[in-house]
Design brief:
By secondary structure, this protein is of the alpha/beta class. It is built from twelve helices and eight strands.
Length: 322
Amino acid sequence: MAPTYMKFNALSRRQAISTSGLLLTAALANGPTSAVAQTPPKTSPNAGPSPFRFCLNTATIRGQKLGIEQELKIASEAGYDAIEPWIESIDAYKSKGGLLSDLKKRASDLGVSIESAIGFPEWLVDDDSRRAKGMERAKYELDLLAQIGGKRLACPPSGITDIAGFDPAKATERYLALLEIGDAVGVLPQFELWGFSRSFHRLGDCVGVAMETGHPRACVLIDVFHLHKGGSNPRGLRLLAANTVQVLHMNDYPADPPREKIDDSFRVYPGDGVAPIREILGILKGLGGPKVLSLELFSRKMWEQDPLVVAKAGLVKMKTLV
């Protein structure tokens, strides 16, 4: 059956994230405790309410293997408004007999909203059998999130990372199918830009797919590191509507290695690198609407530290930039 809005004629976070060590900047080399001790700058009384909500992507403390319940507690104790868990941690909780209704209540009691979540269903691949399984997996993950009060699901181009020249019409049709599944359960699939994807590494490519669906809730999930890795000019964000970008993965990167050689292991705390983060935040604020800033880092050194210290340090870094 043709999609509702249009008809066509025709792990790891990059293999479960690089395990190489992260080159931390001098600020962290001296220990994150000093960063935690800092006080975020106060908002000017004339600045108006902030559109930004601060979120902890649990990749940042993933190496400590805390489990979703403890991750929620860390996010709350550190002072975050929200959390962005990995689906695998929710699955692990459920497989041990945990009730999703209890998890939803725990998040609510802690005052932490579940703004997004990270999964890797192969919804975009050309192989019909794999794609069917991928779509079923996406449906499962969207429903899982609905049961715990989750709002969005990251949907990157999993399974086609190394394929160049992927047909954007196919991507549009398949993303639309995801959106319609999301409509049925009340959770929004976000087309995620991956800087190392050969077909969907640029902002314009991902926005084009979302736009062509004609779906009123179509959107893209962007990441400071991936904008750089894929070679996108962040000033292009000025052309978007308020709801086109709802979540920004916050991180930073050093000047070296060059863009072509850099990988996830070089991510650092926001503000500790050379990314034009303040410019990006200014553009997003100018677009209007609420924005979720989700701290997403992959550092083996951070994974060896106290997760609460790491989470607090990241929040201070983000608030300083905002």
